[in-house]
Amino acid sequence: MAAAGSSLPTTSASAFPAASPSKQLGFNSYVQDLCQSTTTWAGDASGQFKELKSLGANSVALAFPIYMSSITSSALFARRTCGTIYETPSTARLGVVISEAHALGLTVFLRPLVQELQLAQSPSGSWVGHIRPKNVGAWFKSYLAVLSPYLKLAQQLKVEHFAISTELDSLVKKPNWASLISSAKRYYKGQLVFTVPWGPGQATHAGTSPGLDAYQGVLANDAATPSQLLADWNNAAAKTDRLPFPLSAASLDEVAIVAQDGAYATPWVYSLPLTSHPFNQSIQANWYSMACRFFKTHNMQGIYFWGIWYANGANAVLTTPGPSQTQEIQPESAAVIKECYTGT
User: Fold this and answer.
1) Is the pLDDT of residue 53 over 50?
2) 20 to 30 A from 255, CA-CA: which of 111, 113, 133, 293?
3) pLDDT score for 244
4) DSSP result, 297-341
């Protein structure tokens, strides 16, 4: 196992070539409106996107929150209230971010993410994939009402990709999707993406392209190489009940893992106790190397790494190891991603 802060062995360009420019090579930037000034808001976009481009990115996924008051609510809403948990950017604010990305030659992927507000009162382990609205029909009607302004914005600014669903496991097989997708297409003519987590019980829907939030854990020890991790992911992908679409048709819409020992089994966990899971940026770097190889091996449509916060502006990627920021992209990981995207 590499020590925390140590360098990864250099991978030859022939073994880790640059991805095709036709593929989406991106980062997720989590866009919270924290009531920044107009100047700061625009400056954060410009500074951050230039930094991501320097790592070889040609696309940016703008993930932003929308809300439910509980996991059983039949209504959703978008709201920004300064100094509270409500941080949805308006269409006007998001339009500034989209325009900055396009001005720098980046394609854009809009990703509204449902954020529950009462997880502490919900059943243990509940998350967005466990929502169970009391009135499913009303939920879909409300969902479309919340998304419609953003779909219209996406059409107006020629946004290339829009996630019509992200990790809504409990609703994925509801018949309501056909009507919602049809309605969405009246507002937006670009690519609608239906993103699901890796696991059984998923579905595809006509009129959308598949996306995968890739949080498949593996029972590997901390000394596992990217090649060994890749074998585990390939074995999992070979199970026909795990994915309802060919990998070559899909994009990896989220890839993330904390830079800590013992993280391979639960890459979806936002943080682990540092006393039992010490900081180790090579854990994250090896995982990201594996994910890049998986993306290329299966000729997937794109890959987006998680761990960028819009409000960090041009300091989105750490330049020195961050033991107190294990969920963010570490310097070793940034080097791996740049090699993945550029071959250098």
Assistant:
1) yes
2) 133
3) 85
4) HTT-SEEEEEEEEGGGGGG-S-SS--TT-TTSPPHHHHHHHHHHH
Place of tokens 């209504």: 75
**Cα(109)–Cα(172) distance, rounded to whole angstroms?**
21
Residues 97-147: tens digit of each pLDDT: 999 999 999 999 999 999 876 555 555 456 888 899 999 999 999 999 999
* Rounded to 5°, angle at Cα 51 from 253 and 96: 75
Range of the domain at 308: 24-342
Quote the distance between the C-alpha of residue 105 and its chain's center: 20
pLDDT, averaged across the chain: 91
Give pLDDT, residue 310.
Answer: 96
Mean pLDDT for the stretch of residues 50-74: 95
Q: Judge whether 10 lies within some domain.
A: no
Q: Is 206 exposed, middle or buried (0-12, 13-18, 19+ CB in 10 A)?
A: exposed
| Other residues' Cβ atoms within 10 Å of the Cβ of residue 113 | 18
pLDDT tens digit sequence for 24-48: 999 999 999 999 999 999 999 999 9
**Residues 249 and 195: beta-carbon distance below 8 Å:** no
Number of neighbouring beta carbons within 10 Å of residue 78:
20
Tell whether 270 is covered by a domain: yes
Across 211-229, average pLDDT: 95
Going by C-alpha positions, the residue among 168, 206, 163 that lies closest to residue 188 is: 163
| Torsion angle of the four alpha carbons 329, 333, 337, 338, in this order, in degrees rounded to the nearest 10 | 100
CATH code, domain carrying 77: 3.20.20.80
- Is 12 within a domain? no
**Alpha carbons 250 and 229: distance in angstroms, whole number:** 20
